Each structure stands twice: as structure tokens, then as C-alpha cells.
Amino acid sequence: MMVAVSPEHLLGVLYGFSSGGAELLKARRVDAGARPAVQAAHKFLEDRESQLKGYEPVAPRGGLIALRRPSPLGLSPPQPSDLVVCNPVTGQHVSLPRSSTWDESFVLLPDGGGDFRLHVVNLELADAGMLQVQTFTSSSAEPSKGAWGAVVATYAHLPLGAPSRFLRPAPLVLDGVAYWLCKSESECLGYHVLALPLDGRRQPAPIKLPDKVLQRPEHDKARGFNADDLLLASTMVNGKRRLTLAVVKNFTISLWTLEDDQVKPARWTRHKFFDMWRIMVDRGCPAPWREEGDKLALECFSEASGSLLFHFYLRMLHKLDLKASEVELFAVYCKRNSSNMCEYEIT
Questions:
Q1: pLDDT of residue 6
Q2: φ, ψ of residue 290 in degrees (nearest 5)
Q3: Domain assignment of residue 314, yes or no
Q4: Are 35 and 47 in contact (CB under 8 A)?
Q5: Is 118 contained in some domain?
Q6: Nearest alpha-carbon partner for 234 in 322, 319, 309, 342
Q7: Strand, helix or coil at 187?
Q8: Rounded Cα gap, residues 269 and 25, in angstroms
Q9: Which terminus, N or C, of the chain has the lesser number of Cβ atoms within 10 Å?
Q10: What's residue 174's pLDDT?
Q11: Which residues are within 8 A (CB) of 334 and not within 5 positions of it... i.e. 6 or more apart?
């Protein structure tokens, strides 16, 4: 099924529903030209509800979405997941053979004409300073020729003897480079961004976050940072799209931009600050009561709309337009605690 839509639409978000399936939560406001796409995507997921039970979204790109069904917990070593790449709008659906390496993170790259590459990445060898990548290349003309390449271990300039982990399974892809937020057990690195040039011409390397980015108020120092306190995004600064780090502290969001990922040491500059409580009150949004345990949690970034999607109070999902500094209630949702949330865009 072919559905024509105009460029750059945030159709909604995908996540693992509490009952075990993959759910598409549509945006409250969708342009008329994009509504057929939303309807087609909903029908696709409903028709395949039983096939996709237990799957969760892990990587979106260009209308495609990669979903995985993780192997059972407790297996040692961890086993590869069941993987599917689909386009819910056009009806494309490809079940991949299992990779030969553990899949900790994913980079999905459309190649045009329905073809794609899916990189699975893990930090299993991080204590040796390495990351591992294996790539599936599809062939829509001859599906049987879609195959995994060899597992490639690449030196990533990580501290030796110190395990690292990704904070989120999907990276931000910007100008041909995949960026992950990571945490290293090394005291000299800690929270950092790991950059992987996807053309293979440069080695991956960590980008250190300055201490001032991670400083917390005195009353909140003991809590430290959680994965949903930090999120990578991209923003326009002086006419150029730059890697940006969103940081939550209490009920505020700060945006820090990286000036140049090739400059050492990395130079991060704070260029925007949002007091979410004040913005919501000023804009007439329904502001939640502050109760013990309430927190602001970052879910995902939408490049098409230039917005952060975040959870604020119970099951309310809000959308913050980074350019206009406007916030609106996006939807009410119920996702599995273990599930990642992915923006679903057509660009």
C-alpha cells in the first residue's frame, strides 16, 4: 500500500505497550495530508498484533522502524534478539535472521527503494577499549540475498579494564555519525558520548561531558543521574545543526551544544534553559500537582518537528518545541517500563 504524505511529519511515537505488543500513539495534531499515513500504520500494527507480541521498537529512521524481541533474561552469554524491520505506512515487513553477536544497540539506515542497513552494536568488549558492530544489508529486489556481514571489533579509545554501557538502545544519527550516551565505570570518563562515524573512515571515540553539565543542586546530589535525565538531540545554532545534550534537573531542561566533535577537549555550551513548570502555567497547560516521586523524564527526540517528548506526571506525555519554546500535551500513554520509546516520523 502506497500512502503519499508531504515531507517531515511526526506521526506519533512507538513503544512496547503494557500488554506486550508494539503500540503507535498518534500525535494529537496531524496535518490532513498525513492522516492516511497514520491510519495505514495503525492498521498494519493491528493486523500483526499476534506476530509482534513481545516486540519493542529500538530504532526509527525515514519511516522505517526496527523492532526486537529480546532473548530470555539470565542467559550467559546474552543471546541475539529476534529482529524485524518494517514500514507501517507502506506495509513493508522483513524478518531478519538472527545476528551472530549480542545486540545491545541499533542503527537503522534507509538506502532507498525500501532497502536498508541495520547495524547491531554492543559494548561487550568495552573493557578492552573496543565496540563490536555487525551489519545486515537488505535486498528488496531479491530478499533471499539480504544477509549479515562479519562481526567487526573496532578500537573505540575507551578506558581499558572499565566496562561501559549504552544508556539508550538507539543513538542519534547526525551528519553520518551515530552518537550514544554512555556510562563508563572508569572514574576518568563516567558519563560520555560515544561517536561512531558510519562511513568507516574514522575510528569511534568518546566525547567527555564537562563536570558543569552533570552538576546537581546540593539537595539532589545523592540521586545522581538516570537514563531518562539525559537525551541527545540536535538543534540549529548559527545556521548549523549541532549535537545537543538535553539535561533534566528537577523540573527544568537545559540544552548544551557541542561546538565541534573533533576538538579536544570537547567544548559544550549551554544555549537554552526551560523551566517546564513555569512554561506550562504560562501557556495555560494543565499543570500537575507536585507529589512525592513526581519527576520529569525525557523519552525521545523528534528531528522532523524539532521537539523533545517527555513524561511529566502520571501517564502524560508532553511535547516541547525547542525553537518556539512551546509545550503541549501530546497524549496519555501506558508503556512497559523496560521498553524504549521511538519517534515515528516520515521525512
A1: 36
A2: -80, 120
A3: yes
A4: no
A5: yes
A6: 322
A7: coil
A8: 34
A9: N
A10: 93
A11: 17, 18, 315
Burial class (CB in 10 A: 0-12, 13-18, 19+), 73: exposed
Mean pLDDT (the chain) is 83
200-257 per-position pLDDT tens digit: 778 899 998 877 777 765 545 545 677 788 999 999 888 888 999 999 988 889 999 9
- Residue span of the structural domain in which 247 resides: 9-346
Q: Tell me, what CATH number does 218's domain have?
A: 2.120.10
The Cα-based distances of 203 to 179, 184, 198 in angstroms read 13, 18, 9
* H or E segment to which residue 38 belongs: helix 35-47
User: Does 1 reside within a domain?
Assistant: no
- For residues 339 and 311, is the Cβ–Cβ distance under 8 A? no
The residues with which 217 forms a beta bridge, in sequence order, are none
CB of 133 within 8 A of CB of 100?
A: no
How many structural domains compose the chain? 1
Across the chain, which distance is largest between two alpha carbons, in Å? 60
Q: Whole-prediction pTM value?
A: 0.88
Is 103 within a domain? Answer: yes
d(C-alpha 97, C-alpha 49), whole Å: 20
pLDDT per residue over 91-124, tens digit each? Answer: 889 999 999 998 999 999 999 888 999 999 999 8
CB 120, CB 105: distance < 8 Å: yes
**Which has more pLDDT, 329 or 137?**
137
Q: Count Cβ atoms below 10 Å from residue 208 Cβ, excluding itself.
A: 17
Residue 90 CA to residue 81 CA, distance in Å, equals 25
Give strand pairing partners of 136: 118, 148
**Residue 51, pLDDT score:** 84
User: All 3 cell numbers of residue 131?
Assistant: 565496540
Cα–Cα distance between 68 and 122 in angstroms, integer?
15
SS3 category, 37: helix
Give the DSSP letter of residue 339.
-
